[in-house]
From TrEMBL:
Domain of life: Bacteria
Domain spans labelled OmpR/PhoB-type: 16-116
InterPro entries: OmpR/PhoB-type_DNA-bd, Sig_transdc_resp-reg_C-effctor, WalR-like, WH-like_DNA-bd_sf
Any GO CC annotation of this UniProt entry: protein-DNA complex
Ranges annotated as DNA-binding: 16-116
GO MF annotation terms: phosphorelay response regulator activity; transcription cis-regulatory region binding
Keyword set, alphabetical order: DNA-binding
Name of the featured protein: Sensory transduction protein regX3
SUPFAM superfamilies attached to this UniProt entry: C-terminal effector domain of the bipartite response regulators (SSF46894)
GO biological process: regulation of DNA-templated transcription
Stored SMART domains: Trans_reg_C
Amino acid sequence: MEEQNANHSWINNDPLTIVETEFLHFCLEYRLVEVAGQEIELTAKEFDILALLILNPHRVFTYEMIMDIVWNEECNKYSRKAINNHISNLRKKLKTIPEMPDYIKSVHSVGYKFEM
């Protein structure tokens, strides 16, 4: 059984993709987000947007880039509104405690970035 598992490194206890701040715990492989130790329920798109931003801190993602990467679609006149709605919901869900910083920053008329 050991030899079979060696071919599937994801089965072993290989390091996970984890990002932690003072209040936020993010694990990509478990699709887990916790704020102050409390698990936060995110939709698939909210998680994918957060993953894109948190795994690329300080990098600005345009609306077009977010639409292409998360939705795998080209940007259209409704895309910006959809992205803004998802970001708004994501910010509300992450702000479960008053001391939680606003990690997701708007870049006016361009898109979003994650600041730690």
